[in-house]
What we know:
The protein is built from eight helices and twelve strands. By secondary structure, the protein is of the alpha+beta class. A hairpin with a 3-residue loop joins strand 11 (205-207) and strand 12 (211-214). The longest helix has 27 residues, at 118-144. The mean pLDDT is 85.
Amino acid sequence: MDDRELLRTVPIFSELSDGDVASLAQLLNRRKYPKDGVVFFENEEGDSFFMIVGGRIKVTILGDDGREVILSMLGPGDFFGEMALLDNEPRSASAIAAEESELLSLSRADFQGVATKRSITGALIKVLTARLRKANHQISTLALLDVYGRVARVILDMAREEGRRLKDGRIAFRRATHQEIANRIGTTRETVTRMLKDLERQGLIHVDSKEMIVGPDFEKSFD
């Protein structure tokens, strides 16, 4: 899809006129990042919003002990850095390319040129509210569930966010590394490996070289 079509997929811009979208598209900057390339660091000054054309971006923070915690894994069509459009505060997390990625960026100054549009203001509030709800969900998962429950919950979240529903009702999605799952829930890779093997023995998940598949019983058990 071209830049205008990509803008239309972002809720913030979905209700703009064709003319406004065309004008914004001319202001976008396109850049490629290699695997492990840093888009921005936590606490860095932020003045741009990003949309993913291709690849995957992980949004992370570092704990006091230096351990990485993954807040989100984003793919084509997703966007991030939207808080930079509203304030002059530093970045609240780091964004790093999990694989070779291509991004489009829009500066705060260019965004503010159309920010007076009522449709953008309302859409941006909805986006930020949705992100806050997701953050609250993550916090409750970490605070209230044991490690087994946290592993299961993050698998279910990934299935619903990234997966495709098969004809038999199961969900197939990208097989994440055990370290990635561990970094999303604040545990160790070895613990995740044990939990996944147990879930597979119970027949609740199926894992192959590229995908993980969960069935309706898994959804019912850990929803």
